[in-house]
Amino acid sequence: MKKSILTGLLTLTACMGTAASASAAEAYTVKENDTLWKVEKNHKLPFAAVQKMNPAIDPKNLHIGTKLRMPETYTVVEGESLQDISKKVNIPVKELQSTNPNVNSSNIQGGTVLVLPQKTKVAKPKTKMDNTSTKAPSTSVVKTVDGKKLTYKRTLSSRATAYSAAPEENGGYTGIDYYGNELKVGTIAVDPDVIPLGSKVYITGYSFPGLPEGGMVAQATDIGGAIKNNRIDIFVPGSPAHVNKFGVQNVKIYVLK
């Protein structure tokens, strides 16, 4: 079952006005009588945001002239939703929520300063796969249960579990994937080191009510702390009690071109 997402922190500076503003990270020079708390307060940053950016700094012993790395921030314009902001800054909704836990995501006020998570590149697939994964010739084709022919790059033998839209199975968030899209049949959570996020796949070998019989095309748009290596998590509509009956099943995955 999918769990919460790990994110890094960056910081921002506040900027009021009619247009939204995302500030680039800048260094701050420590002045006399400065404390980390005072720096954070003056920049309207959450508690410990600056310390997370400067782990080597002793918060009880700041030296005048020390350069502090400052996070990036985004100042909310009245009427904006978290989904609107997510699209503007190109950061998934869940990451914005994770780095701003004290902000009411359903009622964000204009002028609120959001801390932006550190943007990281999605890891590329490991060049050396284990013996359960095989590379396929460029002309490899799999035939779906409805007769369609799909070209795939490689295959992967995997263990599959299932998760529901319940917040307790989604790190506290209800019914959305890593990118903030609504969970639906065909959504799967993956280890991005094995199956890159955004990949389309064809899955066979499972059997469970609520999923297409025989096989289905799915897309890797979710991740989870417990989803590592060849394991995947398949979204299934229904209550957690129903979804838990899926158990652990062996499946074959065709990573499509």
TrEMBL record:
GO terms for cellular component: outer membrane. This is LysM domain protein. InterPro entries: 3D_dom, 3D_YorM, LysM, LysM_dom_sf, Resuscitation_pf_RpfB, RlpA-like_sf. Keywords: Signal. CDD domains: 3D_containing_proteins (cd14667), LysM (cd00118). GO terms for biological process: peptidoglycan turnover. Residues 1-24 form the signal peptide. Residues 26-70, 72-116 form the LysM domain. SMART domains: LysM. The keyword RNA-binding does not apply.
